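To assess whether ligand presence alters the predicted conformation, the chain was also submitted together with S-adenosylmethionine. Input:
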Amino acid sequence: MTDRASTQRAPWRRALLVPTLVRAGLRAFRARGGAWDRYWRGIRQTGAGGEVLWDGDSAEERGWIVGLARRAMDAGLPLVDVGCGNGRYTRALAPWFTAAVGVDVSAEAVAHAERETRADVEALRRTSAAPGEAGAAPRGPSAPPRLSFRVLDMAEAGAGARLGAEVGAANVFVRGLFHTLDAAQRGRLAESCRALVGGRGTLLLVETDFPGSALAYLELLGARGGDYPAPLLRCLEAGLPPPARFGARELALRFPEASWEHVEAGSAELRSAAMRPGQTSTRIPAFYAVLRARPGRRSP
Ligand SMILES: C[S@@+](CC[C@H](N)C(=O)[O-])C[C@H]1O[C@@H](n2cnc3c(N)ncnc32)[C@H](O)[C@@H]1O
């Protein structure tokens, strides 16, 4: 079944998706604590064959992101990866900047990021080789203190300014966060990004931008009737916020050209983990943008 065919399935088949959706929603409703922490606490395996839906560990996607960041961002500044999750992209980007900080609202996500980073550094030490994926040699293996992680809600008012006071002007990378936030949170996160980039940094966003309905999105990810792929069911049972589009329209709203220079923007693809054993990753329609703040203007 191609991605295109899945968006054309009969409406009555789509209705069969709903009971599992409701059951998972009820489970999440009864659970305690923050949804993101609940989600990350249950994760044992990340990467292509792992449990984290958006963590496809695709060399192709990573190479594209690292190449774009290197081309667009000032390498003399640190990089902040906002909503870093298990830190896969913080680690991939860190060697190309003066320092990298992965920030996540979930302490459980940060624990994953720190664990995986220690394992990577250990593996690098063993092989004593650190080849760059995007061409020229990076500065070297990313070991603390140049690469660090911290727990922070970046959609909280003033979060970006507080972090900026510590790290100075920075480049900012965001993959897969804006599309999970409500309108007020998106506004505050845009403000945080503005405070972090200051007059010198560059912001790179890569966000899910699926054009169809919520049920069509479940089908794209492999749900059929009551049969949901495990990485998808995990998100629903943890009560993660349902994804919404973040594309050109949302960009214009949150990062208007009067306040932000739109250096480049366009369609992209996020690579998921394998949704079922033996499958390859799903290509999730996405949107990317490279932005710089105009002097003296604030986001709306
Ligand atoms: C879909 S995941 C993407 C993770 C990572 N950027 C990646 O692409 O692999 C979204 C991440 O954002 C984090 N997050 C959600 N709300 C946040 C907030 N207000 N501030 C910081 N991180 C947040 C979640 O805990 C989760 O790890």
